[in-house]
Amino acid sequence: MNVPSGMFIFFVFRHGGRKVYFMSTEFIFRITGAIAASIGGGFFGQWLASLLRVSPEGYVIVFVLLGFLVGLILTPYVTIRPLRRISSQLAKMPAERLIAIVLGLFIGLVAAALLSLPLALLGSPFRQILPLVAAAVLCYLSVVILVSRQNDLQTFFSGFRMSQAASGESGGNSQSGDQFILLDTSVIIDGRIADISKTGFIRATLLIPNFILFELQHIADSADPLRRGRGRLGLEVLTQLQNEAPIPTQITDMDVSEVRDADSKLVALARHLHCPIMTNDYNLNRVAELQGVTVLNINDLANAVKITSLPGEELKVKIIQEGRESDQGVGFLQDGTMVVVEDGRSLINRTLNVTVTKVLQTSAGRMIFAKP
């Protein structure tokens, strides 16, 4: 049961047949603050009575009671409740912002400590005041600057970590290859990567270089409505990957200045990081394989998970169009596999049982040849 803070003084539960009492944290703070405020009120009453040159007993009693009441009421509002609010805000704060704040405070304090040495040589009261003012100003400026550039800070550290992993020994190289997967524009526009990432089969961090992002943005700004729609779809897929996918997705500034083409940059970056490329581009697939880069092709994955049909099995398919050869009809299974039916041209728009005669695996996918 959720109990409002400070509503009950004691919490009671039974343990071994006995009632055990626990005081709430807020009540302890109230009592402590009330005692401290009553003591302060007593000293204030005694000082006020001596100032007015009257008997101090009445003033002391009145201000002790008043201090006890004020402390009992106001202590949680200046102690535990602000701490709880700050703790709640810190728990909701993104990790990169929290790191930027802590790092900004550290840099500001270090700079203030270095600046306090010459400031201490000034005359009084400047040498007492200016070091504190400098510490406050430098900490504030450091925190503001680092928080405003927290994304650049995260990119810098991620790029540094990737460079360290790529420059390691052979064991470290294989580990960095397991940590990152470079995404090509074609696989982002395809959209299936968002669904695949939710299945848990991909464990590595998805890495999108800025030059791939610029290429995707250029497609989204195209005058051709079809290209523009594909580019905007790719941007939506990136948003889903960053916000909904259980695996991390990073945008990196790492670039290869020696080459200008986006595909060549991607292959060179994959070789540098010793990580695979995920793409649906046939030409990029072949070029990357020739240069020794591992390629993850979603089309190959889709073909691999399709239902395998063996010669002699029976399938139920609807013939929807003519085939290339004479008297051939073409239909499709639910997973998109093409079925070419011999003597099926006259059976268009009919659903019938066919017997598999041959299964052919091509780069475009799996094709099944059958006869009625």
User: How would you name the CATH homologous superfamily of the largest domain?
Assistant: 5'-nuclease
- The unreliable regions are 1-17, 169-177
Give the amount of beta strand, in percent. Answer: 15-25%
How can the largest sheet be summarized? 5 strands, parallel
Number of strands: 12
Structural class: alpha/beta
Coarse morphology: elongated
Number of spatially distinct domains: 4
State the order of secondary-structure elements, H for helix, E for strand. EEHHHHHHHEHHEHHEHEHEHEEEEE
Mean of residue pLDDT? Answer: 77
CATH class of the largest domain: Alpha Beta
Separation of the first and last Cα atoms: 68 Å
* Rg from Cα: 36 Å
DSSP helix fraction? 55-70%
DSSP helical segment count: 14
Spatial ordering of strands, largest sheet: 5-4-3-6-7
Architecture of the largest domain, CATH level 2?
A: 3-Layer(aba) Sandwich
Q: What do we call the CATH topology of the largest domain?
A: Rossmann fold
List keywords for this structure.
372 residues; alpha/beta; Rossmann fold; 4 domains; five-stranded parallel sheet; five-stranded mixed β-barrel; 14 helices; elongated; disordered N terminus
Explain what this protein looks like in three dimensions:
- By secondary structure, this protein is α/β, with parallel strands linked by helices.
- The protein folds into 4 domains: 10-80, no CATH class; 94-148; 169-303, 5'-nuclease (Rossmann fold, 3-Layer(aba) Sandwich); 307-371, OB fold (Dihydrolipoamide Acetyltransferase, E2P) (Beta Barrel).
- It contains 14 helices and 12 strands.
- The protein has a 5-stranded parallel beta sheet.
- Helix 1 (25-52) runs antiparallel to helix 2, helix 4 (95-119) packs antiparallel against helix 5 (126-148) and helix 10 (210-220) packs across helix 11 (225-243).
- It is elongated, with a radius of gyration of 36 Å.
- The model is unreliable at 1-17 and 169-177 (pLDDT under 50).
